Amino acid sequence: MTKSHILVIDDELSMRELLEFMLKREGYDVSCAVNGYSAISMIEQTHFDLLLCDIRLGDITGLEVLKAAKKQDLNTVVIMISAYASAETAVEAMNEGAYDYVPKPFDNNELKQTIAKALKLKTVTREKRILDDELKKHIHFGRIVGNSLKMLHVYERIRKVAKTTTNILVTGESGTGKELIARAIHEQSNRRDEPFVSINCGSIPESLLESEFFGHKKGAFTGADNDKEGLFKTAHKGTVFLDEIGEISPAIQVKLLKAVQDKAFMPVGGNESISVDVRFLSATNRQLDREVIANRFREDLFYRLNVIEIRVPPLRERKDDLRILSQHFLDKYSREMGKRMTKISSYAIDLLRRYDFPGNVRELENLIERSVALSNTNILLPDNLSISIHKKTWVKEEKDRGIDLDAVAGGISLDAILDGIEKDYINKALELSNEKKKYAAKLLGISTRSLRYRLKKLEIEK
Prior knowledge:
By secondary structure, the chain is an alpha/beta fold. It has three domains: about 5-130, Response regulator (Rossmann fold); about 145-310, Rossmann fold (3-Layer(aba) Sandwich), CATH 3.40.50; about 320-455, Helicase, Ruva Protein, domain 3. The chain has helices at about 15-25, 35-45, 60-70, 85-95, 110-135, 150-160, 180-190, 205-215, 230-235, 250-260, 290-295, 300-305, 320-335, 345-355, 360-375, 390-400, 415-430, 435-445, 450-455, and strands spanning about 5-10, 30-35, 50-55, 75-80, 100-105, 140, 145, 170, 195-200, 215, 230, 240-245, 265, 275, 280-285, 310, 345, 380. It has a five-stranded parallel beta sheet with strand order 2-1-3-4-5, sandwiched between helices. A five-stranded parallel beta sheet has the order 9-12-15-8-16. The chain has a two-stranded antiparallel ribbon with strand order 6-7. Helix 2 (about 35-45) packs parallel to helix 3 (about 60-70), helix 10 crosses helix 12 and helix 13 packs across helix 15. The chain is extended, with a radius of gyration of 30 Å. The chain starts with a strand and ends in a 5-residue tail after the last helix.
């Protein structure tokens, strides 16, 4: 591993010797300059990863060295040190691109930590720049939108695994776009011209899942009037995507394990095994390792499917993508609805940034779609956001402050508080289910009749 090269610039011999000794013990390559002009000459001839520069140098100021270093290489990290600099000088140094300002006398350990953090940030920044160059700074990777550092790492991982035949497990919260990741892997693979068969394991009744996977023979069960080809056979030479894999029962897990191991299966009611050439991609919003520990998911199947894991970050961890995602959805739904909305105001983006989006990208898309539908302007303003995201943000901030139990001493309305909580949960369930009461009731664990009663009681107009 290449050592980082640090240039120490200080006109005091004792300080140069101290810093040189300390930094060499940390494993860095260290050079020293006795004044500003010699430092600039060295910078012009040699690449340094980091400069540790005093502000007072005797001939010229450290700020002039800083400017010269940034002119030579904008990516050079510079940390200023001084016993005499004013707050104004420190601010000026930061404005000129200094990473940090460290006053003398400094704590050796703190200075070493500052240097390590600065060099780590430089490495991350360089990686992001390389990935940006590879992707030609496009915000799209297949159908995926985003150029945050976390998403660029996801793209890099897709590129590495796509050409292999290895089984991949895509993990992440609901609404993060796990199926898009799976499709991108397929489209980058050598199987791109063959079928991509997606199976939502959570939406198919267990009694039908085996037949969906493997097919069945005529007469295998009541209603099996004809032979049926299973989805695994349909995917021959291509890719099978098992979405919500954590939802399948132990009985189906046993049969799926054999199919994944042997690349062969037997249709329901059949007596001959069928061999297929398929690659398995799976996705889950559950922590399958914990499901294994709890004996709800077979360990051997887990390791068969999870040869390589790709984690899709939630939207709250990639808020740098909020603007381009929002613009992408704005363009999409403006076209579909025949509107001329072309821009999202920075104030609207600021409001979106304050919200954590528990429903992730799916929730953002739903929000922008409805905002476009209800808006009469050409620019999306905070007031155009069709759901009460103002209220949601306020509610989140209130929750962050904690429940004020002391308010009980002054008297409260418990019914009003409970009604407010109930209303928030119902509105969230309706939002996630696109206002379909049957599915909202299922999310809340209540009957549709009970939901209708609560909507009326709480005066929720849906």
